[in-house]
Amino acid sequence: MDTQKLAQTAKEVVSRTILAADESTSTITKRMATIGVQSTPEINRLYRQLLFTAEGIGDYVSGVILYDETIRQTTDNGVPFPQLLEKMGIVPGIKVDKGTTPIPQSGQDTYTQGFDGLAKRLIEYRELGARFAKWRAVYTIDLTSPSDISVQRNAHDLALYALLCQDAEIVPIVEPEVLMDGDHTLDRDEGVTQEVLKNVFLQLKKYGVHTQGIILKPNMITAGKKNAQQASVEQVAQITLETLKHIVPDNVPGIAFLSGGQSPDLATAHLNEMNKMKLKSEEKYPWRITASYGRALQGEAIEAWGGKAENVAAAQKVFISRAQKVYQASMGEL
Predict the structure, then answer these.
(1) Of 12, 175, 177, 273, which is the active-site residue?
(2) For residue range 100-122, what is the model confidence (pLDDT) as tens digits?
(3) Nearest alpha carbon to residue 19 among 111, 90, 74
(4) 225 has catalytic annotation
(5) What is the C-alpha to C-alpha distance for residues 238 and 144, in angstroms, rounded to an integer?
(6) Can you say how many angstroms the Cα of residue 27 is from the centroid of all Cα atoms in its chain?
(7) Which domains does the chain have, with CATH numbers?
(8) Which of 138, 154, 207, 324 is the most interior residue, by most CB within 10 Å?
(9) How far apart are the first and last CA of the chain?
(10) Rounded to the nearest 10 degrees, what angle do helices 295-305 and 312-330 cross at?
(11) Active-site residue, 175 included
(12) Which of 95, 134, 217, 278 is catalytic?
């Protein structure tokens, strides 16, 4: 295991922003349905090509997470997507988990599937061009969830996944997502997120994962969507950074926040505020703070496209406009 190479790759991936274009077959089907288009491998390819060939993408995006279908696809000219991205200075990545499933008799608790054949799949994905990977664990907040079983099980799984990635010379994105769903308070979200992250980093250490060769993809700490009392942008940024400061090792190269269903504008504003705070205290917050957004980067573009060839150029402009804003926010420049 070349830990220096892993650390260098991780720094490359977070140098700008990460586009999460890793929607599963079921998810991309739902996304396409919102614009009245039926998802097929070819329609999906055309949509991803629209994003990946948008002029200027390399100025704002440094990593793209692909799906199993997508990493095997090519442009109209026959160029494999990973190769296309590399030529633009963008690191190709791959989603390797196979979604969540309920833990029986544990309320809304889930664990993540995907360990069967993972070591072999990582080798294949590396040969296809992937240099980093992603595995998502999900935690729902309600009266009984997340349980200790859920928190501990997902922490073990994230650590084992990360170890397998590093053994295959692939940088793992470690994604423990505390969902915004529900009516929980900001304080409750803070407490759950702290417990989740503490367990994750405890297990990463126990499994011997090199934290200088990972990327953390956490949620921002917010009140539940159904809670009438929402915190200000400044409050969310402050409480999120303070939580991370006490748990995340200084040698983690980057924290790439997920948007978690926030609107593009709100997700961008939160990221910008955190980086403004970081600029005032670089030593206090030593990691690169950026974004790994899916809907918050793509949502406006897919609506502008609508599945029509004549809308490709307009959709690309919308996408690049948002990508530029998110990158500027990752620098605290908005």
Answers:
(1) 175
(2) 999 998 889 999 999 999 999 99
(3) 90
(4) no
(5) 27
(6) 15
(7) 3-330 (3.20.20.70)
(8) 154
(9) 39
(10) 160
(11) yes
(12) 217
